[in-house]
């Protein structure tokens, strides 16, 4: 028989527990007790819930809620961040760094870091244009320029950037040869990946700027890695030899040019010296011509003496006396001249020539007398 069937059977499971008549809690009684407590707090007597006490309790609760709501509206935007304010889910404005306040449940703020340079790596095995497999590792560095576009242009900005980055790398590697990616073409590949990534991101308008692109590593499969290492070493040796040859060329070429310029300047100086010397000889003979025409004998004797002076100034002199006792007298004038000052050499030679002329008056007759004096010198030596 059911506990609630007619017949006076009182088997209510909510009553008569523990020997007492108990049942489920009455919600009306619960609310009434709460209101009675607020009524007492507000000045009611004996737990009575009159209208005045109820109003004071409600006012107190509302005041506390307002205070909590106001305090919960304070927030801080850091120096490197910009705040995107949404009012009822729609973009309202930006806020600058500092202590700010917003109406809770009305505005929501999304802080976005716009100064930190972020990095996103990417790697994978890719097929090159010449149908070889290489593993490439690159890293892109970017910075947020427009917080609103970064937050709402796409659903997940980092995921979209990662997929675009992978696509740009595979496109560039797929249009490059393996040797270029592994050796000398890395810089070109890096620049091409950056340009391709910017072209992919432009339609999305994500509000980010690509700061730099790093080509971290590119290596062939492990099975052929040793052969490629040898090829790379050979290319490095080739480049080193080229650099050494260029350095040697840069060292030798200026030296050769300097020698050429020096020889050209010396030749020009010799040319000018020869021209000036010839012109001087011409001028000297032109000056001597009137003198010779006026006094041929005197002029001829003077030229003869000047010639002897210039000859004897550059040769060793030996004087032999054949007169008197007949003994040979040796006078080493060259040793004497070495002890004298070079400035006195012309005067000494001139005095020697004058002494010879005084001893041999025939010297005044000109150059033809030299044969007679030579015969005398030879006879003296004999």
From TrEMBL:
The chain crosses the membrane at residues 54-77. It is a single-pass membrane protein. Pfam families: Band_7 (PF01145), HflK_N (PF12221). One of its GO terms (cellular component) is membrane. One of its GO terms (molecular function) is peptidase activity. Residues 340-350 have a biased composition (Polar residues). Residues 72-232 form the Band domain. The keyword Plastid does not apply. SMART domains: PHB. Residues 372-382 have a biased composition (Basic and acidic residues). It comes from the Bacteria. The keyword Iron does not apply. It is found in: Membrane. GO terms for biological process: proteolysis. Residues 1-23, 340-382 are annotated as: Disordered. HflC and HflK could encode or regulate a protease. PANTHER family: MODULATOR OF FTSH PROTEASE HFLK, STOMATIN-LIKE PROTEIN 2, MITOCHONDRIAL. Belongs to the band 7/mec-2 family. HflK subfamily. This is Protein HflK. It comes from Paraglaciecola polaris LMG 21857. The lineage of its organism: Bacteria, Pseudomonadati, Pseudomonadota, Gammaproteobacteria, Alteromonadales.
């Amino acid at each position: 028989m059911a506990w609630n069937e007619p017949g006076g059977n009182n088997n209510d499971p909510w009553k008569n527990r523990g020997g007492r008549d108990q049942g489920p809690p009455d919600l009306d009684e619960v609310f009434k007790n709460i209101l009675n407590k607020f009524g007492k707090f507000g000045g009611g007597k004996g737990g009575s819930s009159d209208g005045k006490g109820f109003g004071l309790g409600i006012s107190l609760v509302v005041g506390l809620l307002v205070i909590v709501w106001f305090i919960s509206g304070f927030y801080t935007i850091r120096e490197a961040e910009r705040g995107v304010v949404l009012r009822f889910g729609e973009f309202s404005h930006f806020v600058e760094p500092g202590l700010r306040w917003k109406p809770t449940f009305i505005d929501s703020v999304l802080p976005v870091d716009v100064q930190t340079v972020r990095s996103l790596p990417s790697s994978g095995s890719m097929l090159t244009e010449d149908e070889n497999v290489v593993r490439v590792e690159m890293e892109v560095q970017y910075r947020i320029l427009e917080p609103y576009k970064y937050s709402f242009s796409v659903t997940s900005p980092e995921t979209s950037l990662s997929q675009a980055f992978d696509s740009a790398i595979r496109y560039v590697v797929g249009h490059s040869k393996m040797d270029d990616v592994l050796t000398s073409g890395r810089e070109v590949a890096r620049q091409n990946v950056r340009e391709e990534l910017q072209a992919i991101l432009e339609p999305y308008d994500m509000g980010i700027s690509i700061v730099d692109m790093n080509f971290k590593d590119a290596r062939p499969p492990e099975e052929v890695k040793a052969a490629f290492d040898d090829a790379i070493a050979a290319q490095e040796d080739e480049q080193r030899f080229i650099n050494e040859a260029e350095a040697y060329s840069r060292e030798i070429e200026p030296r050769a040019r300097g020698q050429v310029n020096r020889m050209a300047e010396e030749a020009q100086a010799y040319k000018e010296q020869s021209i000036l010397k010839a012109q001087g000889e011409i001028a000297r003979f032109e000056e001597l011509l009137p003198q010779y025409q006026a006094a041929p004998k005197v002029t001829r004797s003077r030229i003869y003496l000047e010639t002897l002076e210039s000859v004897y100034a550059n040769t060793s002199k030996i004087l032999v006396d054949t007169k008197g006792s007949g003994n040979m007298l040796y006078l080493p004038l060259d040793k004497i001249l070495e002890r004298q000052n070079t400035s006195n050499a012309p005067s000494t030679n001139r005095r020697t020539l004058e002494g010879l002329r005084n001893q041999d008056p025939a010297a005044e007759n000109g150059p033809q007398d030299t044969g007679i004096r030579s015969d005398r010198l030879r006879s003296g030596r004999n």
